[in-house]
Amino acid sequence: MGNIGTVTLVGAGPGDPELLTLKAARLIGSADVVVYDRLVAAEILAMIPPEAERVNVGKSTHHHPVPQEEINEILVRYAQAGRNVVRLKGGDPFIFGRGCEETARLAEAGVPFAVVPGITAAQGASASTGVPLTHRGLARSVRYITGHCKADEMLDLDWAGLADPETTLVFYMGKATIRLIATQLMAHGLEGSTPVMAVASATTAQEQRLDSRLDRIEGDLARSDLESPVIFIVGAVAGLSGRTSAGCLCTAVLADPGAERCHA
């Protein structure tokens, strides 16, 4: 084996190419090989050098033309051939991006690797809609949750722990399971009136938003034209959607003496 290359897992962010980090842009522009996912923006792919090799390993719901195990081996093979590889992933590589599965295989094969974080979809949607994920007096914590299980297994989550009215829940990949998510959260104590905001293609020109509530989101989503990728923000902060600014409820919230004890 000759000189071994390196693999860098790079987060491409939530969609808007201007949200790409400077480090990510530099690495993309100097790569020998770019192995990329379906959700990477065309403007970001345009940064790849013309002489670099492109490998599309994108997945969609129920359609995985390149299994994860094969993606792992692709990365190893290119690196062992001495190529400098960028593994380009939507969002952040280590937030529902299966990045650790890839780095584990690289470590096993003795391939040097690094990880460059990206802005995840929850942060992107929060910024583009003006809906905060935490807010003093409304939400003291936030949880990111997958709405999709490996091999389409049943979604089995700690529903009792999730059904906290002072926690913002952000569900990724939950369009196909939103009925189960809503039903279980209500069964475990969240009110049906809990606000829900669905955001499709967050931060892009194609962004779409749907304001609903827990007991209506399934029907509202079915009647909408939102297409994947969709994330769902569940909790009191979602009720701020459509306001002129995320801070417009501050006066009302702080009018509650108990609100002072809560810090976002």
UniProtKB/TrEMBL annotation:
Top-level taxon: Bacteria
GO MF assignments: uroporphyrin-III C-methyltransferase activity
Cited InterPro entries: 4pyrrol_Mease, CobA/CysG_C, Siro_Cobalamin_biosynth, Uropor_MeTrfase_CS
Protein's UniProt keywords contain Magnesium: no
Span of domain Tetrapyrrole methylase: 6-216
Keywords: Methyltransferase, Porphyrin biosynthesis, Transferase
Annotated EC: 2.1.1.107
Pfam family, one: TP_methylase
Pathway assigned to this chain's UniProt record: Porphyrin-containing compound metabolism; siroheme biosynthesis; precorrin-2 from uroporphyrinogen III: step 1/1
GO biological process: methylation
Enzyme class of the recorded protein, top EC level: transferase
Cross-referenced PANTHER family: S-ADENOSYL-L-METHIONINE-DEPENDENT UROPORPHYRINOGEN III METHYLTRANSFERASE, CHLOROPLASTIC (PTHR45790:SF3), SIROHEME SYNTHASE-RELATED (PTHR45790)
Family, per entry: Belongs to the precorrin methyltransferase family.
Protein name: uroporphyrinogen-III C-methyltransferase
Species name: Sedimentimonas flavescens
Gene: cobA
